[in-house]
Amino acid sequence: MVDAASTTRVLFLLNIRPEFHASCMARSYYEQVALPPLDESATWEMIASLLGNDPSVVALGELIRERTQGNPFFIEEVVRALDASGVVEGRRGACRSTGATAEIRVSPTVQSLLAARVDGLAERDKLVLQSAAVIGKRFPWAVLERVVGLPSPEVAASLAALEHAELVHAETEAECSFRHPLTQEVHSSSTRASHGTPRSPARSRRCSPTGSASTRA
What we know:
A 3-stranded antiparallel sheet has the order 3-5-4. A two-stranded antiparallel ribbon has the order 1-2. The relative contact order is 0.10. It has helices spanning 40-51, 58-68, 72-84, 110-119, 123-135, 141-148, 152-164, 181-195; strands at residues 88-91, 94-97, 138-140, 168-172, 175-178, 204-207, 213-216. It is an alpha+beta fold. Helix 3 runs parallel beside helix 4, helix 5 packs across helix 6 (141-148) and helix 5 (123-135) crosses helix 8 (181-195). It has 8 helices and 7 strands.
């Protein structure tokens, strides 16, 4: 598509990960802008927007800043994990610490944090998430149902739980996607290593949000 539009006045603005490569990146009209980590001021601003300014979370905010090194996704996931584990309580932007900061353990990498989040899921939700990860960043409900091998209502219930956990979100009535590419990459790699790649279905089905489906060749 990019090559076809090279003689027109069209601007393509894409968000890609550093390891991504495509032939269009060698063209003279291609320009890449690297996004550096957040600086210290922006990091504190983001932490404050998530935790708030209660005195009990100041030391916790410093721990998050040191560990995440300005990575916005990492910051968000750390705060989410601390909330889920009961280290902080309250609503977004108005949290309070419930324990001593010295006793708090923060995962060393965002990958390990994502893996830990999935370990805490119900077994059915974990199976649906890992199967979706093997399909790709975007996955049709119909294909997911065939791969995971569960009834439509159970798949729909798991996707609703995963969307509530902000791991995936609905793109259309028939397709979902992972909220962040790294979530898909982490669980795709672990699933392939443990179980091998599920076979893609030979036939596709259109699926409604309620989980009903009709098969077509």
